[in-house]
Design a protein that fits this description.
Pfam families: RNase_HII. This protein is of the alpha/beta class. The protein contains 9 helices and 5 strands, in the order H-E-E-H-H-E-H-H-E-E-H-H-H-H. The chain has one domain: Ribonuclease H-like superfamily/Ribonuclease H (Nucleotidyltransferase, domain 5, 2-Layer Sandwich), CATH 3.30.420.10. Helix 3 packs across helix 7 and helix 4 packs across helix 5.
Length: 219
């Protein structure tokens, strides 16, 4: 099956009605350890007229070795971008969906900074669940789009930025907790990770509210 190349078709149409788009995608929702990350890209009409960065795809479709260079091109293409985080302790305290909303809010604030008015934007969210409005009820216009990370270049850019940032964080955390092999599994439920949890218990970076010792292997 051929790989679908993301385009800016939808973004160009939506920018006829909105001055800017803030495009979001999350990484780490299903991990057992580490934070959840939400990437945000701000796109305006000028950016939507430029060519899609070379090699840009949904982060799951970009080979791991190529992701950093694709992320660099995506960051250079977007007028503004950021990655927002919610830590494992926050996930335990408020639940994963609320934590995604917190991470998204932090990404939006960082990406807009003093240069863009988020209240004037349309937020494009990958998936079918709006986790942004729960944190900003009535303050932001949000549109959830299934497969936006596959079809919309701006959301694919957010996906790659978040994936590269979160993977790098898990690699950096790994030497302090070598048994869990986070440099390989990035906190997801690999067989080795589950075995280490059974043998060594949970670290401060695990989502301790989750019943994770017997979580199914994801890869």
């Amino acid at each position: 099956m051929p790989v679908v190349e993301p385009s800016l078709t939808l973004e160009r149409r939506l920018l006829r009605e909105h001055p800017i788009l803030i495009c979001l995608d999350e990484v780490g929702r299903g991990a057992l350890a580490g934070p959840v990350a939400v990437g945000a890209t701000v796109v305006d009409a000028a950016a939507a007229r430029r060519r899609v960065p070379q090699g840009l795809r949904d982060s799951k479709l970009v080979p791991q070795k190529r992701r950093p260079e694709v992320a660099e091109r995506a960051q250079a293409w977007a007028p503004a971008s950021a990655v927002g985080w919610a830590e494992s302790t926050e996930i335990d305290e408020v639940g994963i969906m609320r934590a995604l909303g917190l991470a998204a809010s932090r990404a939006i604030i960082a990406a807009c900074a003093d240069a863009y008015d988020a209240s004037a934007a349309l937020v494009i969210l990958d998936g079918n669940h709006d986790y942004v409005s729960a944190v900003h009820p009535g303050r932001l216009a949000v549109r959830s789009i299934i497969k936006a990370d596959r079809d919309c270049a701006s959301v694919a850019a957010a996906s790659v930025l978040a994936k590269v940032a979160r993977d790098a964080l898990m690699v950096d955390l790994s030497p302090a907790y070598p048994a869990y092999q986070w440099e390989r599994n990035k906190g997801y439920a690999s067989l080795e990770h589950r075995d280490a949890i059974r043998a060594c218990g949970l670290t401060p970076h695990h989502r301790s509210s989750w019943a994770i010792a017997d979580a199914p292997t994801l890869f």
